[in-house]
Design goal:
By secondary structure, this protein is of the alpha/beta class. It has helices at residues 14-24, 36-42, 61-70, 104-116, 121-139, 148-168, and strands at 6-10, 29-33, 49-53, 76-81, 96-99. It has a domain at 6-118: 3-Layer(aba) Sandwich (Rossmann fold). The protein contains 6 helices and 5 strands. It has a 5-stranded parallel sheet with strand order 2-1-3-4-5, with helices on both faces. Helix 2 (36-42) packs parallel to helix 3 (61-70) and helix 5 (121-139) runs antiparallel to helix 6 (148-168).
C-alpha cells in the first residue's frame, strides 16, 4: 500500500479516461472506470477523489454522485465535463467542477485542493459552495447572476466562512481571501 492519494477516474470515453490516468499516475494511485456501474462497484472509503464525467450513458454523473453521497463515503468528487453549467448545479453535491478540456496542472491543482481539505464537514461544505458560486458567476449570463438562488448561495458561503473563521480564531491563521492574511507570495496585504 502507498501513502499517495488515490483517484478514481470515471468517464465512458475510454481514451479520455486513459489520458487522465496517464497524466496523474506519477502523483497519485489511479484507477479507471468506464461506466457508472463499474464506478459504483469500485468506489469506497479507500478512494480519496473521484473525477466524474457528468454526461454518460446508463448512469449519469449526477446519478453516480448522488449514489456516492447516499452511501456516506468520505470521498471528494470533482465533476469533469464539457457541459456548460446551469443553476441545476447548485443542488448537486460535488466538491469541484472542471470544464473540459483540462490541462494537467489544473487537474492536479483541483485534486490537491480536495486532498488537502481533510474531512472537516464545514470546510468541505464551504469549498463546495465556493466552487459552485465561482462556476456560476463565471459561466452564467449576466442577467442570471442576480437570481434568488445565487443570493442564497452567497449567504450560505458567508455563514460557512464566518463559522470557519470563528473556529480558527484561536490560531494565528488569518483569512487571505479577506485581505487579513499574507498573500500567496508571502508579502503583507495593503492596509
Amino acid at each position: 500500500m502507498t501513502d499517495r492519494p488515490s483517484v478514481l477516474i470515471v468517464d465512458d470515453e475510454e481514451s479520455a479516461a486513459d489520458v487522465y490516468a496517464l497524466r496523474l499516475e506519477d502523483e497519485y494511485e489511479t484507477a479507471v472506470a468506464y461506466s457508472g456501474r463499474t464506478a459504483l462497484e469500485t468506489v469506497d472509503d479507500g478512494i480519496d477523489v473521484v473525477l466524474l464525467d457528468r454526461r454518460m450513458p446508463e448512469l449519469s454523473g449526477r446519478e453516480i454522485l448522488e449514489a456516492i453521497r447516499e452511501r456516506g463515503l468520505a470521498v471528494s468528487v470533482i465533476m469533469l465535463t464539457a457541459v456548460d453549467p446551469g443553476l441545476e448545479v447548485v443542488e448537486m453535491p460535488f466538491d469541484d467542477y472542471i470544464t473540459k478540456p483540462v490541462a494537467k496542472d489544473e487537474l492536479v491543482a483541483a485534486i490537491d485542493r480536495q486532498v488537502g481539505l481533510g474531512r472537516g464537514e464545514t470546510r468541505t461544505e464551504y469549498h463546495e459552495v465556493r466552487a459552485k458560486l465561482s462556476l456560476l458567476e463565471r459561466e452564467l449570463p449576466p442577467d442570471e447572476r442576480d437570481s434568488e438562488t445565487l443570493r442564497r448561495l452567497r449567504e450560505r458561503a458567508a455563514r460557512l466562512r464566518e463559522q470557519l473563521t470563528d473556529a480558527e480564531s484561536g490560531s494565528d491563521s488569518a483569512d487571505p481571501e479577506d485581505g487579513t492574511g499574507p498573500r500567496p507570495d508571502g508579502s503583507a496585504p495593503n492596509q
